[in-house]
Design a protein that fits this description.
Blueprint (H helix, E strand, L loop, with lengths): L4 H52 L8 H18 L2 E6 L4 E4 L12 H8 L6 E5 L9 E10 L2 E11 L1 H51 L15 H49 L8 H29 L8 E4 H11 L1 H6 L3 E3 L8 E4 L1 H18 L5 E9 L2 E9 L32 H11 L4 E6 L3 E9 L26
Parallel strand pairs: 7-9
Antiparallel strand pairs: 1-2, 1-5, 3-4, 4-5, 6-8, 9-10, 10-12, 11-12
Helix pairs in contact: 1-2, 1-4, 4-5, 5-6, 6-10, 7-9, 9-10
């Protein structure tokens, strides 16, 4: 059976309250009973002391009727004033004088009782009971020897009915139960109000989660304010929902871009091949169009490879083989591999040198891919007659590598998003904008994997500059950064060197 949090909380609180009330009631009952018994015994001791001193003067002459009547009268007066029963016995336990003998069941007190009285500490014996069957009901008993010239002449027993304790316990129990019931009712009402304020936000979060699980990423938890755990949970849910909604939107855009990127070259390839097969394209142009088909096939291969690389990196399958190497050799090697494209685009290269040597600690293959992607990006968006400039600067424990190119640049509002996995803004990069938004994200992942950071700076309409850092020393164990999905924030734009 499903048990809601409100029922579980109320059951727990009610159980704890009942246990607390029971423990408190029992402890109070024991405390009050002990106090009541001590108070009764103190009263009986006082009465016994007074009666003992009174009868001590006449003990030897109790057989005389005149003195007997006088003593009985005084004892009765003491007993009535204190609401107790008083009786005396000789050393053998025989009752010789009693203020009220209605509750006595026998004329002789048992010897074991007399022995307890004689051996009592401080000379006074206390008992709550029937005194070995001497009474027909329980009594508080205070007994002591009667001494004359340090000789025991007999015993005095001062008794009070134990029914008084029963009456006290009954009144205490009824009052306590009434108070406990009122307390439980008040606590239940307060708990219900508390649970309502607690469960209503949870219900809203639950409903939002159900809608969210059904595919409605726009749902949010409303009207949950404050600094408590429930408010934190609601804010966390809203943040999660917003992030997932953004990811879902980006993923949809990404799939659309991928579909477009795949469809465009495939359509071109199919058109050219169909033209060659059906004779629409004359034989003398076959080589030209086959070259175009080759270019489009290469474009498809690069797109698929980028997707595979990204999948492998994010799944953690790639093993980093870091070592010390000269970063200038990588920059020069990538530039030489793109020489034909650079010449075709009438682009000037600046800053490349084989004379400098700056060692960095990273995986050479990964950094080669980073430089290749950045240079490929720069070539695409550098207009004819433009410039691509390389620069390496050692800054303490890291080296800063930058690739600058003239051209349209990137819009300021697009800078924070250029490294996102699914982001693509063709218009921000001017002429011949191509790609599926993967190249720069792969650069970010690779640089982070090498223990560095990457950023972009741009002045729209004039230039763009990508900068990444790499360690120049072998780091300690565990110092390399793990793969991160955090968006690298673009640094402030600064003039190109």
């Amino acid at each position: 059976m499903r048990k809601s949090i409100s029922v579980a909380f109320f059951s727990t609180v009610a159980t704890l309250l009942i246990l607390a009330v029971a423990v408190m009631g029992l402890s109070q009952l024991v405390l009050f009973s002990k106090y009541f018994a001590e108070e009764r015994f103190d009263t009986l001791d006082d009465v016994g002391d007074l009666a003992g001193r009174t009868v001590g003067y006449f003990w030897d002459d109790l057989t005389e009727s005149e003195k007997m009547e006088s003593v009985v009268g005084q004892v009765d007066l003491i007993g009535e004033s204190a609401k107790v029963y008083i009786f005396f016995t000789d050393t053998e336990g025989k009752v010789v004088l009693a203020s009220n003998s209605n509750h006595l069941t026998q004329e002789n007190i048992p010897p074991e009782v007399l022995a307890n009285v004689a051996g009592a500490e401080e000379g006074v014996y206390h008992e709550l009971g029937k005194m070995k069957g001497s009474f027909d009901e329980e009594f508080y008993v205070s007994a002591r020897p009667i001494l004359s010239n340090s000789k025991t002449m007999g015993y005095i027993f001062v008794c009070a009915s134990g029914q008084m304790l029963d009456d006290f316990v009954g009144r205490f129990a009824s009052n306590f139960l009434l108070s406990a019931c009122l307390m439980l009712i008040c606590a239940s009402v307060l708990t219900m109000f508390m649970m309502r304020s607690l469960t209503e936000p949870l219900h809203r979060i639950s409903e939002a989660a159900q809608k969210f699980g059904g595919g409605d990423f726009s749902v949010r938890v409303e009207d949950v304010d404050g600094d408590g755990e429930i408010a934190d949970l609601a804010r966390t849910f809203n943040t999660m929902a917003a992030n997932l909604q953004q990811i879902d939107t980006s993923r949809g855009q990404f799939m659309g871009n991928i579909a477009h990127e795949l469809r465009t070259p495939m359509t071109t390839i199919k058109g050219f091949i169909d033209g060659i097969l059906d004779g629409t394209i004359p034989p003398e142009l076959h080589n030209h169009y086959l070259q175009l088909v080759s270019q489009e096939t290469g474009r498809l291969a690069r797109l698929v490879q980028n997707m595979l690389d990204l999948s492998k990196l994010e799944s953690g399958e790639y093993r980093v083989n870091a070592r010390m190497f000269n970063i200038w050799e990588t920059l020069t090697g990538v530039a030489l591999s793109a020489e034909q494209r650079i010449n075709d685009g009438q682009i000037d290269l600046e800053g490349l040198t084989m004379d400098e040597r700056v060692l960095v600690y990273a995986d050479p293959d990964l950094i080669y891919q980073v430089v290749y992607n950045l240079l490929d990006n720069a070539i695409k968006f550098t207009p004819p007659g433009g410039v691509i400039r390389f620069n390496v600067e050692k800054l303490g424990p890291e080296a800063e590598i930058s690739i600058w190119n003239s051209g349209q640049g990137i819009a300021g509002d697009a800078l924070p998003f250029v490294f996102e996995r699914f982001y693509k803004e063709d218009q921000s990069r001017g002429l011949h904008a191509r790609g599926a938004g993967l190249g720069l994200h792969i650069c970010k992942v690779l640089v982070n994997l090498a223990g560095g950071q990457i950023r972009v700076e741009s002045k729209q309409g004039e230039w763009c500059r990508f900068v990444f850092t790499l360690p120049v020393e072998v780091p300690g164990r565990g110092d390399l950064l793990k793969l991160s999905d955090d968006t690298t924030q673009a640094g402030p734009a600064r003039p190109a060197q």
